[in-house]
Specification:
Length: about 800
């Protein structure tokens, strides 16, 4: 290697320095030597002086007289410079001294600045193979790291002290490597970047720390065990140094051993902890407390991830907690606690249960299944028990409101739970055929009847909407229609309807739900009532009436729209008979080819009664009025006398007498006293009757539904169903012509909207075969042929 020298030229008052090692002056050394030798031989030069820094300075030659040329003379240094090898060795010594000072946390020499260190690194990179400098630095770093190992092998310190020592060692190492990287920045940006297989100085430091410190078995085991111990303490409720745990776990991640030496052991310890905890707490705590504990544990583990664990651990960690505390015990939790939570309407706990079960596989499905089973079980106890018939509908409405609130508030209005709720209600409400439909119709009647002061119009409208929800669940809607029509007829004919608007609103809801065919007869009943008002107005304006001692109001009913009432001929006073004849003549004069049939069953009247204590008006049924009018002719009568005088059916007569002689307003007296009416009883006019009211309404016994009426209504429904089954069979066979028995039954179940048993369908098929609507196939008795 040629020796280095420096030359200076002075031109126009400026100096320019060149260095042989500079990339700005390629091959400058050889050219300058040849030029200098040539000039020294041909001319005499002025003396040169040596600068204190060892650099020879030259002066500009003065102008010779008669010459225009400027001659620049350059000479070699006259001082003896160190060789390049010595210079590089000295540079490394300075750098080594600086690195050791950093590693030992000492100050650098005052005359050794950071700029000098940068220049030494730059000289070493340019004047020798950079790899030599890299590996010298690696060896120096490795030697220092090895010297730090002994402090961790003594085994005398406890786990916490060991972790702090390890953390201090790691923290100092990182700080030292940052300073070293700054000094050797040129090496990192040049040599390292140009060689992909060479690690950066920082990575080299991490690799050596991992290799000589952390991969030592004792250090690794004590580090991991100490971390697990601290996390276990925190889980048990103790306070730990989270910053220490965080720093050490970041160390493991930086050294790329987090997953290898820590994560698996951590997850296994977590699984064992929560396995034991789940088994213990499911026995010791009730379900709400256990759910709160699980939620607390999940929150704690999420916080650990946020504070010191690696984010990649979160999924497996949370899954481990969910599996051991929830998945393994979900069936037990549902069987033990769901029913009580629903019974007590503990919505916060139910919301927590839903949110926790949403985290585990199949959790919501199992919750939905148990929710459905609970509704079926609880609802069945309401419907099946005959003792609860009186309050069944209100209890069903309350139960439905409660379950709707839970689904909406606790189960996030999930479609699964909404469908499960509907399916469960539809299932249990039809466990008892016909009765729920009948009771719902009677419940509507009680709410729409006059005298119901329990609700305003808006509240009544909301109640009707809720009733329609129950109505949708009923399979036997024809049963509801039959009882609703009968009750509606009574409300309209006796004038007991609370509100025409409410009646029409209910009618509109039924029409929207079941179609116009379902409500056509009900709408016809309202039309009859409106037409009757117009007819009576015209009748009263008729001049043929003259002066009549009584007032008559008639409702003309279309027989197909209204319920069937038994035809009963009773004996009425001549004045009433005469009035009926006048109206009949008037009506038939306006409507030809029609027949009027008088129905006294639902008639009612107001009688003026003169008692010794004062006059009264008695609001009674027509049968009650006929009985009371007999006492204008006699003060005392027997049961037989009254039956002959009125011609009222025996059962109806006994109920009528019971209402007059045994009720609150006893306008007649029975002898002997008692609640039942016997054949030997005698009845007399009660002269001592008193009452504070002027108009007194005596309970109308015939308005209350008897068991016979109920049975008759059910029989009419059954008969209507038979007609519908027959029509469906004929319709199907007419379209198919030939059909096997099983396919016919399947088609019937698809078309019929009410529950029916296979045996009933078979009876109707046999009936149609007997009436020659269809016949059995001669070759296959299980196949039917349509007979045109």
């Amino acid at each position: 290697m040629s020796s280095s020298f420096v030359s200076e030229s002075v031109t126009n008052g400026q100096r320019k320095r060149f260095s042989s090692g500079s990339p700005d002056c390629p091959h400058l050394h050889k050219k300058l030597c040849r030029h200098t030798q040539h000039m020294m031989e041909n001319q005499k030069l002025a003396n040169f002086s040596v600068a204190p820094n060892g650099v020879n300075k030259t002066t500009v030659l003065g102008k010779k007289q008669g010459s225009e040329k400027k001659i620049l003379a350059i000479k070699n240094f006259k001082v003896h410079n160190q060789s390049a090898v010595d210079h590089m060795a000295q540079s490394w010594e300075f750098l080594q001294e600086a690195v050791v000072a950093i590693q030992e946390s000492r100050k650098l020499r005052d005359n050794l600045t950071q700029e000098d260190l940068y220049r030494y690194v730059d000289n070493l990179i340019t004047q020798q193979d950079p790899s030599r400098l890299y590996y010298d630095l690696r060896e120096l770093t490795e030697r220092h790291i090895k010297s730090r190992l002994n402090q961790f092998l003594s085994g005398t310190s406890d786990r916490l002290t060991f972790l702090r020592q390890l953390n201090d060692c790691w923290t100092h190492h990182c700080h030292q490597m940052k300073m070293v990287c700054n000094i050797f920045l040129a090496l990192d940006r040049g040599y390292v970047l140009q060689n992909a297989q060479v690690s950066s100085i920082w990575d080299m430091g991490l690799e050596l720390f991992r290799q000589h410190i952390l991969e030592e078995v004792v250090v690794e085991n004590r580090c991991v065990d100490g971390l697990l111990m601290m996390i276990e303490k925190e889980r048990s409720g103790e306070t730990i140094d989270r910053s220490l745990v965080k720093s050490l776990l970041r160390m493991l991640s930086s050294l790329q051993v987090y997953h290898k030496i820590f994560e698996n052991k951590f997850l296994m310890a977590t699984e064992q902890l929560y396995l034991r905890e789940g088994q213990r707490l499911t026995q010791d705590r009730d379900v709400p407390q256990y759910l709160l504990h699980v939620d607390k544990r999940l929150t704690e583990e999420n916080n650990r991830v946020l504070h010191y664990l690696d984010m990649s651990t979160k999924r497996q960690l949370i899954y481990c907690v969910e599996k051991q505390l929830l998945s393994e015990h979900k069936t037990f939790l549902l069987q033990k606690g769901l029913d009580s939570l629903l019974d007590q309407n503990r919505r916060l706990d139910l919301s927590l249960l839903y949110s926790l079960f949403a985290r585990i596989k199949g959790g919501l499905e199992d919750l939905c299944t148990h929710f459905n089973a609970y509704i079926k079980s609880y609802g069945k106890t309401i419907v099946i028990n005959p003792e609860k018939d009186k309050g069944m509908v209100q209890e069903l409405l309350d139960f439905k409101d409660k379950m709707d609130g839970i689904v909406s508030e606790c189960f996030n209005s999930s479609d699964k739970f909404v469908l499960a709720l509907k399916e469960a209600f539809e299932h249990f409400i039809n466990q008892r055929l016909n009765k729920p439909a009948e009771l719902i119709a009677k419940f509507v009647d009680s709410k729409l009847r006059a005298g119901n002061k329990e609700a305003t119009e808006d509240e009544l409208e909301r109640l009707l909407d809720k009733i329609m929800v129950l109505f949708r669940f009923i399979h036997g809607k024809d049963v509801f229609e039959a009882f609703y029509k009968k009750d509606l007829a009574k409300r309209l004919l006796v004038g007991k309807s609370a509100s025409v608007d409410a009646e029409k609103s209910m009618l509109s809801k039924l029409k929207q739900e079941c179609g116009p065919g379902f409500t056509s007869k009900l709408e016809g009943m309202f039309k009859d009532m409106e037409l009757s008002k117009d007819i009576m107005l015209a009748f009263k304006q008729n001049s043929h009436l003259g002066s009549t001692p009584i007032e008559l109001n008639v409702n003309i009913l279309t027989m197909g729209y209204w319920p069937n009432y038994p035809v009963m001929e009773v004996n009425m006073p001549l004045e009433m008979v005469h009035y009926q004849q006048i109206f009949t003549k008037f009506y038939l004069a306006k409507h030809c080819n029609r027949k009027l049939q008088w129905q006294p069953t639902l008639g009612h009247c107001v009688l003026k009664a003169a008692f010794p204590q004062g006059s009264k008006e008695l609001q009674v049924s027509l049968f009650q009025g006929l009985v009371l009018l007999l006492f204008n002719k006699a003060d005392q009568m027997t049961l037989a006398d009254i039956a002959t005088g009125t011609n009222i059916e025996d059962g109806e007569l006994r109920r009528t007498l019971q209402s007059l002689a045994c009720g609150k307003a006893r306008v007649i007296q029975k002898s002997p006293r008692g609640k039942d009416i016997n054949d030997e009883d005698k009845f007399s006019y009660n002269k001592d009757f008193t009452n504070q009211l002027f108009r007194i309404r005596i309970n109308q016994i015939q308005m209350k539904e008897t068991s016979e009426e109920q049975q008759q209504t059910e029989e009419r429904v059954y008969q209507d169903r038979q007609y519908q089954i027959d029509a469906a069979i004929v319709r199907i066979m007419k379209m198919r012509k030939v059909l096997p028995h099983n396919l016919l039954i399947t088609e019937l179940y698809n078309q019929l909207k009410f529950p029916v048993k296979p045996a009933d369908l078979k009876k109707r098929i046999e009936s149609l075969i007997d009436r020659d609507y269809m016949e059995r196939d001669k070759d296959n008795p299980n196949t039917y042929n349509y007979v045109a």
